[in-house]
Amino acid sequence: METLMIEAEGLTKRYGETQALGGIDLAVPAGTVLGLLGPNGAGKTTAVRILTTLATPDGGGARIAGHDVVREARQVRRSIGVTAQDTTLDEALTGRQNLRMVAELSGLRRSAAVARTRELLDRFELTYAADRLVKGYSGGMRRRLDLAAGLVTHPPVLFLDEPTTGLDPASRARMWEVIQELIAQGTTLLLTTQYLEEADALADQIVVVNHGRIIASGTASELKAATGGARLEVTLTHPHPGALAALRPLTESQVDVSRDGRRLRASVATGASVATAVIRALDAAGALVDDVVVHPPSLDDVFFALTGASAQAADAAASAEDVGSDQLQGVSR
Amino acid sequence: MTALAPAAVTRPAPSDSLRQRLHEVTVLTRRNLLHIRREPLQLSDVTIQPVLFSLLFVYVFGSGVALPGGGSYKDFALSGLLALNLTTAASGTAVGLATDINTGTIDRFRTLPMWRASMLVGRSFSDILTAVLCLLFVAGTGLAIGWRPDASAGGVVVGFALPLLFAYALTWVTACLGILSADPESSQGLGLVLLFPLAIVSNAMVPTQGMPDVLQAIADWNPVSAVVAASRDQFGNPNPSASLDSWPMQHPLAASLIWSLGIIAVFAPLAATLYTRRTRD
Lengths: 333, 281
Prior knowledge:
The structure holds two protein chains of two kinds. Chain A is α/β, with parallel strands linked by helices. Chain A has helices spanning 44-51, 73-79, 95-105, 110-123, 139-150, 169-184, 196-202, 220-226, 243-247, 274-285, 299-307, 311-332, and strands spanning 4-15, 18-29, 33-37, 59-64, 67-68, 80-83, 157-161, 188-193, 205-210, 213-218, 230-236, 256-257, 263-268, 289-295. Chain A has two domains: 4-224, P-loop containing nucleotide triphosphate hydrolases (Rossmann fold, 3-Layer(aba) Sandwich); 225-332, Alpha-Beta Plaits (2-Layer Sandwich), CATH 3.30.70.100. Chain A has a six-stranded mixed sheet with strand order 6-7-8-3-9-10, sandwiched between helices. Chain A has a four-stranded antiparallel sheet with strand order 2-1-4-5, covered by helices on one side. In chain A, a hairpin with a 2-residue loop joins strand 1 (4-15) and strand 2. Chain A is elongated and about 80 Å long. The two termini of chain A are 34 Å apart. The longest helix of chain B has 28 residues, at 118-145. The two termini of chain B are 37 Å apart. Chains A and B meet through helix 2, helix 3, helix 4 and helix 6 of A and helix 1 and helix 5 of B.
């Protein structure tokens, strides 16, 4: 039987008027990676704060490595490493002093703390800046040091709250490498992210959250399958009033039209001649076609289908995502 | 990135031992001292201020104060200056804790398997070390301008130890202020509003005999007065309060110990409770 390292049932949390979590269930088997995916304000950080004993749930419960996060918070803290979204480093200390402090406060003896600090600085390529104040560190250096601080005791369960948000491509690449090493070592990982690409690349299992609730979960391929059919994207030379009507018989979903009226997106049944049929139909309607793309649904499609974001927002986010994924692909190779 | 060694399991064995707690406190004390080393000007209230206050009070006020029962104002002033400077410097604890609570560092500490109160005890320890520095500056200035104790070495040690104990007790009061206040700036303001009257409405810098009745009653029961009177007795310096009727002025040593230990007994657990409540969401 598989051991669950992270379990949550019906977690709820309210901050004043805001229902941050509206009942979240999670189950993460040992040695696997859960990606918690959602936009800003979806409740990802609140979930992480509860699971890492920083916040108490209003309802429901959670166990980490078999320990209750409320009643056995101390045992939970012995089993986890945490890298929060906001860096938790002491700005007025050097990188080395920060790690040594965390190591000693985690229960390592002085000599062990010194050795472990040296090892982590080396592994995260921070040795050259070890004796500089953290105040002067770049964003990428801070994230790496913060992650190093979370790894001081080789914790079996690791929480990374948006580990690459705000990082430049090179720093994100390094962060991915480190995370993949940790996964290879068998660490159980809960990772929150706004980047679909990131969840797809790193997580075994993805949970999509929005407004404090789980709106979908499964593997990346299950989520893609759940949205059904392939995705069709047509770019017209000019907006055409008959294009929508011409496409409708061929599609399985509503057709989204971009603001300029030139880009049309919809789900279609996968079939050999779909592209031919589309071009013929548009040609018959008198619309000129620049480009036709038919592809299996991406996580972007899944996410936007689930959260019901408008086509315009989808476009904007998709173009932003394109930039991100190009950078990331360079990284993962 | 360098290649990784296989995941060695070096997780520390669960340890709630007193030794581990002391170690945590030492680590956090050292952290606070490192902060001071980065910004030594933080120490001006325990270095420059004591020198300034000593000179101001002795040469400006001292020239106009006649002590009931006689004696030199310089000898009278030293214990008062100790209490005055140590009391006002206690606002540093409030500022330090408010700063800690308002940065992300607190979240890091809270996810570590450490004793919650280590944070507070570490803060009180580093603050008592700065209080010792304050004491050295007051004593040094005093000796330079002519203060002399007239007592045994033991008496002198106790004469210094009593204000220091009181300063330690006060750090727990200002710790509560620091935890309750929204940010470091307001905690500093709040601290001074409380500590300044506490230090001044006392026998620290003037004999209370000349005060209006109500004020004198307050001053005679003020813990600062008990500490100052006890310290003067120990140093063998003039202590005009000895002729007053109120119980604390008749038994200043007992009164100052009761006050200091009582404040610790009440405010240390209170600070721990407030801290837990403030840092939980």
